């Protein structure tokens, strides 16, 4: 599958989820998340592009969706990937990567990768469960493993893979009004993807974390899961 080069931040916003229902506040708590993963409620993930689902023999991968238990509320720990990587360079992502032969389960792979990339101690992670597989245009079948991260803990970026580490409030990411659908059109067709830009001020400097692509797609599935 041909992957055209484009700048996602500059593409037009086709729609947002402003008219969609909100996740109940009780679900966005540690106990609410635990209870939801214990349930077996029917729900439908977002449909994926047919060109992605037709990829043969995708490589297995796993990511950790780390939900940090802060005094002011839950946050999601994310990374900005290093610019030198061969896949998803410079993009916002969850800690994670390819499943290796020594990884007994996708959960083991997600915890190992999170420890390698951001030095997150697996003992501080309370694994809740997993979301459905997510197929990427780069040929990966990603299993998102969701876990609560208990304080105290420390993180430190592996500079070969991670440019920076930051956190975004869970209620921001689960608010459908912040879910943009952007569209890219080129001579071979068009592609739509989710984006969730997060404005942030650090040390008096304002900036934007542009969350999009597979990471935003998995977060959108998390919203659908919590809404059920």
Automatic annotation (TrEMBL):
This protein is called what?
Answer: Putative Nudix hydrolase NudL
UniProt xrefs under InterPro entries: CoAse, NUDIX_hydrolase-like_dom_sf, NUDIX_hydrolase_dom
Q: What is its EC number?
A: 3.6.1.-
Keywords tagged on the record: Hydrolase, Magnesium, Manganese, Metal-binding
- PROSITE patterns named in the record: NUDIX (PS51462)
Q: Which cofactor does it need?
A: Mg(2+); Mn(2+)
Identify the domain of life. Answer: Bacteria
Its Gene Ontology molecular function terms? coenzyme A diphosphatase activity; metal ion binding
Per the record, the gene is nudL
Per the database record, which ranges form the Nudix hydrolase domain?
Answer: 58-190
């Amino acid at each position: 599958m041909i992957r055209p080069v484009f700048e996602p931040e500059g593409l037009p916003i086709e729609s947002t989820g402003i008219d969609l229902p909100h996740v109940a506040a009780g679900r966005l708590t540690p106990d609410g998340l635990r209870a939801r993963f214990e349930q077996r409620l029917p729900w439908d993930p977002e449909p994926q592009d047919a060109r992605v689902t037709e990829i043969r023999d995708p490589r297995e991968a796993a990511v950790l969706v780390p939900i940090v238990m802060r005094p002011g509320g839950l946050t999601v720990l994310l990374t900005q990937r290093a610019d030198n990587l061969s896949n998803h360079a410079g993009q916002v992502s969850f800690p994670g990567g390819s499943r290796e032969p020594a990884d007994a389960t996708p959960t083991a792979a997600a915890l190992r990768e999170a420890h390698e990339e951001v030095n997150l101690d697996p003992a501080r992670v309370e694994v809740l469960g997993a979301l459905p597989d997510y197929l990427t245009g780069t040929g990966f079948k990603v299993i998102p493993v969701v876990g609560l991260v208990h304080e105290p803990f420390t993180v430190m970026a592996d500079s070969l893979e991670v440019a920076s580490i930051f956190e975004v409030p869970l209620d921001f990411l689960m608010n459908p009004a912040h879910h943009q659908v952007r569209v890219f059109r080129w001579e071979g067709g068009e592609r739509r993807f989710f984006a969730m830009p997060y404005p942030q001020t650090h040390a008096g400097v304002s900036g934007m974390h542009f969350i999009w692509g597979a990471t935003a797609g998995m977060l959108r599935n998390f919203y659908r899961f919590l809404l059920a």
